[in-house]
Amino acid sequence: MRIRPDTPVLLMLAKACNIILLTLVWAVCCAPVLTIGAATTALYTVMWRISAGQEVRVIREFWDAMRTNWKVATASWGIMLLVGLLLAGNMVALSGVQAPPALLTLMKGAAGLVLISYLIVLHYLFAGIAKYYVTISQAFKNAWLWGMASLPRTLVLFCLSAVSVILVYFLEWLSIVLLAYTIYLQAVILNHIFLQYENRKHAEP
Hints:
Layout: H1 8-30, H2 36-51, H3 58-68, H4 70-95, H5 101-131, H6 136-149, H7 151-171, H8 176-203
Helix pairs in contact: 1-2, 1-8, 2-3, 2-4, 2-5, 2-8, 4-5, 5-6, 5-8, 7-8
């Protein structure tokens, strides 16, 4: 008896394998740190194709997407990395500051707002670069606007990222399947946000 390759079970299994393989390729390509931005744009590009039910060659298409977005994504990641290091240093410095309680609370509150803004941009920046041809300044501006315009879903993205960090911390490589599907959910949510943004633009006179 021949097994048809287009049966729902086999298609679902193939999709699951592609999602896990893509996550593994992304994790490996993030190891040099410098490549995190380009690797993440490639991750979203291929993940969206998988979620749309397209046939994909994960490694080849990941590599092509990584090369396509290399300049903007790497420069954007360099900026985010530098800002992230400054924020971390600021948090450490604040923990040792001797100041009146009211002033210290104000300083920590301001630092907290900057950190939240940073995280909002981080969650949209590379997906936006993967989706659209943009300059670096446009990529940052769009990331901020999308995040603020879709706050409920931004909070969901934050929660999914927190789950990812917890999975990796406690389960390490054993978490790869759950991590892959967490990233998949983030990609689906982001794509839905972008589609709504495009529909609003088309509806404008």
